[in-house]
Specification:
Pfam families: TPR_10 (PF13374), TPR_12 (PF13424). The protein is mainly α. The chain is built from 34 helices and 4 strands.
């Protein structure tokens, strides 16, 4: 906690306190507009606080700010009931307390507690109270934190028709975990003994150990983690499931996490043993997986800082049986080794990944999922080598990649899992781009020209041309773009997928200043839907480059309101980024009948972004006005809270 107390501007303190006003809660609880009587129920002490604050240091504040503050105080700011309101209030109180304003934070903490206590859903109430208790502990309010945790525990121990034994255990486990984060370790350990299953105990103890490790209490953390491991290994019963779309294994999930924490505590041998004892699962039809063994190795790897430890991990990881998990874990190890300068070993691992035999059974979806994972694993290694300017080594890795996917039939479209250009094609394109950035233009062009896919080759050449333009080699860039080979015209005139490569190339041409050419290509697409999509993408690209006027002009060519909404949202976001807030606000405030109107959720997010930006530059009145227009009540509340916090800093 800071040693010096931060002095909050009176408006900020007013908003912070006002957000905790009982008037708000009464409005929320009834979900009705406040009546005149309700609007006058704010306490006199809060009215006095607001008045005193304004008189003390805000005499120059605009009448709007005074009026808005009064409206909030009267209960006219609606927060959704009730969990989110409790969270907002607790976070605000935490921010106040950590800034040195301990006394001012207390009313907000208490208001957060009051709101949490009226939550009807038992599990949600427990979560809210535990979250507030953790915040209190983090600002040194230990006695009050302990009281709240005890309340949450008592609630978790009581069953009801809507809160049965299946809900009770996980709820109590989560309270225990937050207790550990709040440094109430002994109480957390006592309660862990009361949990009803080995699974819950293992999960809780694993998190307690992690919390202790975060605080540097390694010895106690190690002891508790080994106890968690013992419980996890003893899990029996119905802990695994498989369905058409999903699968899971709770025992392997917790063991995977324990393996990572064992590595954190320098227990590498035991961590690798645990990782070797688990395996992943897949859904019945093969569309999704849970890669527990790969995740265990990734967790272990994240804590390793010595080459020898990574090499030991690689030795153990070679025992992985699942081709999919081999690709995931082995690639991560190779990338780690590259960062450590062990390129030859990384290349040998890439060769082993390339040699993983293709999966040809189970289902077409499963086959392609394994192939895509393998290709992405090799891509990650090649890109990491490229970033280190190890271009020859990167090209060696690419040689092990698949040029095109096998022909399979199934319910899922092949392009959904293995898009064109292939992963190998796009990897070659990125290598070519990085070569050009490194000044190796001739080599970059050779790599680009080696790409068999026409779209992939064109996109790589455009990327190189962009580099040439930025390095004042405009004539060479122009020649490269002039000689660009475009995809052949599809046989079917209205072939949406057949014309997609042309659409992608057209959008990329905008990045090298060839907007007119891009528009001509877009207009040549016969598919109405793809032509609209391409024009939208071109306009969005223009906006992203800061070319607002031509982007807005293109909106006239867009027929769909959805397309225009996507474009104007991008334009407005870019205007916010450029600091042109009034223009952004004009778009965000467009009525529904306007051609530039935005969809509800996007409009609310944009208004919140604009309000935040106004607050950052000190225009607090405008920030509040914008926040007031947000229709999403939860987002409005959070935005006003954030404005108040920014004004307080």
């Amino acid at each position: 906690m800071p040693s010096q107390k931060t002095i909050f501007p009176p408006l900020a303190l007013s908003l912070l306190i006002i957000l905790g006003s009982p008037g708000i809660a009464s409005s929320i609880a009834t979900t009705r507009q406040p009546t005149p009587a309700t609007a006058t129920t704010a306490s006199a002490s809060r009215q006095k606080f607001l008045t005193t604050s304004v008189q003390a240091g805000e005499r120059g504040r605009s009448s709007y700010e005074d009026r808005k503050a009064g409206e909030i105080l009267a209960g006219q700011l609606f927060l959704p009931c009730c969990t989110s309101q409790a969270e907002v209030l607790a976070v605000l109180a935490f921010n106040l307390a950590t800034s040195g304003n301990i006394e001012q934070s207390q009313p907000l903490f208490e208001r957060a507690i009051q709101v949490a206590e009226v939550i009807s859903d038992r599990a949600a109430k427990i979560r809210a109270l535990s979250a507030i208790a953790l915040n209190l502990a983090q600002v040194g309010q230990t006695p009050r934190s302990e009281q709240l945790f005890n309340t949450a525990v008592q609630l978790a121990k009581k069953t009801s028709p809507d809160f049965d034994l299946y809900a009770q255990g996980p709820a109590l486990r989560d309270v225990i975990m937050q207790m550990a984060q709040a440094r109430q370790t002994e109480r957390a350990l006592q309660l862990t003994k009361t949990l009803s299953s080995h699974l819950l105990k293992a999960q809780a103890l694993n998190e307690i150990a992690a919390s202790l490790a975060d605080r540097g209490q390694w010895q106690q953390a190690k002891s508790i983690l080994l106890e968690a491991l013992q419980f996890a290994r003893g899990i029996t019963g119905d802990y695994a499931y498989e369905s058409n779309g999903f699968c899971g294994n709770e025992k392997f999930a917790v063991l995977s996490k324990i393996a990572g924490n064992l590595s954190l505590l320098s227990q590498l041998d035991r961590a690798l043993q645990v990782a070797g004892s688990v395996s992943g699962c897949s859904s019945a039809a093969g569309q999704s997986t849970q890669d527990y063994q790969a995740w265990a190795f990734l967790g272990i790897l994240s804590h390793l800082k010595k080459v020898d430890s990574v090499k030991q991990t690689w030795k153990s990881a070679q025992a992985i049986q699942s081709p999919l998990e081999q690709s995931i874990a082995w690639s991560a190890i190779a990338v780690k080794l590259i960062d450590m300068g062990e390129v030859p070993l990384a290349l040998s691992i890439a060769q082993k990944i390339a040699a993983i035999p293709p999966v040809k059974d189970y289902s077409p979806e499963w086959t392609l999922l394994n192939l895509g994972t393998k290709e992405n694993a090799l891509r990650d290694i090649a890109i990491k080598l490229t970033q280190k300017q190890q271009f020859d080594a990167a090209m060696q890795v690419v040689q092990g990649m698949t040029a095109s996917p096998p022909s399979v039939s199934g319910s899922m479209q092949e392009s959904d899992l293995f898009p064109q250009p292939s992963i190998k094609d796009t990897t070659l394109g990125e290598i070519a781009h990085q070569m050009a950035l490194a000044g190796q233009v001739s080599s970059a062009l050779q790599v680009a020209n080696s790409i068999p896919n026409i779209e992939g080759k064109a996109l790589a050449q455009i990327a190189i041309a962009r580099v040439l333009q930025t390095t004042k080699q405009g004539s060479q860039a122009s020649k490269l773009l002039q000689d660009l080979v475009l995809p052949p015209t599809p046989i079917k005139p209205n072939d949406y997928y057949g014309y997609q490569p042309l659409s992608h190339i057209a959008t990329a041409l905008v990045t090298v200043g060839q907007t007119d050419r891009a528009l001509q290509m877009a207009e040549s697409i016969p598919s109405d839907l793809l032509r609209e999509t391409t024009l939208t993408d071109i306009a969005v690209q223009l906006a992203d480059l800061g070319q607002i006027e031509p982007a807005v002009k293109l909106a006239k060519n867009l027929k769909g309101q959805g397309s225009r909404s996507i474009l104007f949202n991008k334009v407005a976001s870019k205007l916010v980024e450029l600091g042109q807030l009034d223009q952004a606000l004009q778009i965000a405030s467009s009525p529904a009948s306007s051609s530039s109107s935005l969809e509800g959720s996007e409009k609310a997010k944009l208004l919140a972004e604009i309000a935040d930006k106004f607050a950052q530059i000190g225009q607090r009145s405008q920030a509040l006005k914008v926040a007031e227009t947000i229709e999403d009540n939860e987002l409005k509340a959070k935005t006003i809270a954030e404005i108040a916090t920014k004004l307080a800093l």
